[in-house]
Amino acid sequence: MKAKIILDKLLNLFLTYKPINTYMSKSTEVTQTKPYTPIALADSAQWRKIQKTGKSTTPYTEKEIQTHFKPHILEYSCKIQVLSKRLALAIPLLAVLLSDRRSEANSAADDNAAEFRALCNLVNLAQATIETQPTTAAPKQTAIYIGALNLSIAPKEFTEAIDVSKEWSTLPETNKQKLGGDQTYWAFYKAAKQELEKNKQWIQQWTTPAPSQKATVHVKAAAERAFQVFTTETEQQGKIQTPQQLATEALYGPGKTTATETMAGDSDRAKVCSGHNDAAKNKAGQALYTDLLCLCAASSENAGTKQACGKGLQTATTNTNWTPNSNDKAAGDKLVAACERFGSPGKLSEPTVEAAWAQLKQLIRRETGPASPQELVLGKVDGGGGSFAGCTGNAASNKGQCAKYKAEHFKKEGATVPWLMKLRAAAAAAAEIDKQTKAKETLVMELNLLNNTITAALSSHQIPQILSKPMSPPAAAATDCSKHKDSKTTCENTGKCKWKGKV
């Protein structure tokens, strides 16, 4: 900026510099001035004649010309010559200084400090503890128990046709026919049969003797709803990846749970961080971990690279130069640990991910310093005006300490940077787990109500059974012979007493 101001002033001085045509009036002897450009003066026939002969065709005398014109002309001519020489020396240097970004010899302290902090927000989100509401709700197990109650009152041949040791494909045809010939319910039948065998004694107390027709209808209806719950739970099981798994992959890359020393895939930093001369090897955007290395890891090219992401990092964080595909973990783990000083922007959720991404996206720019402008660059690039030499780890000679993202990950439909997609998926999975937890708790309440209803229906037929059992006759009152001790006839007539004589 200072160079531009200086050059503007010099050019303005050069273009607006106007010598003074000073002449003396014979009558008044008052000095008057009339500005005109050097070009206009040079084109003047009078000037050419004066310059060649020293004599004027005007009414002025030679003495007047020598006295008034020539000293001024010589003075301004000298000034123009000096100014022209200075501009000739200054313009090439100033033209370089006027490039869009100030050219520096090497990476310098805090060149990438803002980018580092923004990237750290995303790194910290990827490591944040994902809070999902714990639940003890087990609607599937309750559904299986209801299925077992249903099987306990089903016809014997139906229940016996369910061979839990076989899959539907290997089940004998006769068994299939007894089960209706449809495998839709097979998994539910197997689970219910296993539950029945495990808790047969407990279940039979509700189903023996055979329940009434009304109770049977209740049980069948409940079993149908239980089957729907069982099927839904089975289909969802394993479909949702854990949020922590997805977040970890955002940090380290697809399928990875930690960093390795050779995760870069190539020893050429310019290829790894920007795809320079080999686009297929560009790892920018694949993992937050790799982007951190490209942005902040020290380079053997210059010691200034150790402080590019912040003064003081060179002491213990970037004190070791990064050699891609050799010491990736050793260099990267320190940077991940350094991110902790910024703290987490909150728990992993869709709003926090989008807010952190918006902050970083503002720092990804079009780099116009090199002769061929580079799109989607994060970090410092030297702008010397030559051909871009890649993100080599040092901002010098049209190179940079940077990460250059692929154009395919920035479309008008939205950004699809791989680590960003993983973070978004992790946040969505966490939200889905919370949603399912609440749904399961509601479902368990529903199934428990169904279970209580059919249990009541099954037990209702036992009440009249209890009441219809012949009551045990009350014990006959003992005959009190002492009441008949005064009469032999009365005593013997009772049939229970024996006369032994009057007491």
UniProtKB/TrEMBL annotation:
GO cellular component, one term: plasma membrane
Keyword Cell division appears in the UniProt entry: no
Membrane topology field: Lipid-anchor; GPI-anchor
Superkingdom, taxonomy of origin: Eukaryota
InterPro entries named in the record: Trypano_VSG_B_N_dom
Protein localization: Cell membrane
Trypanosome variant surface glycoprotein B-type N-terminal domain location: 95-446
Key words of the record: Cell membrane, Glycoprotein, GPI-anchor, Lipoprotein, Membrane, Signal
Known function: VSG forms a coat on the surface of the parasite. The trypanosome evades the immune response of the host by expressing a series of antigenically distinct VSGs from an estimated 1000 VSG genes.
Protein name per Swiss-Prot or TrEMBL: Variant surface glycoprotein 1031
Organism encoding this protein: Trypanosoma brucei
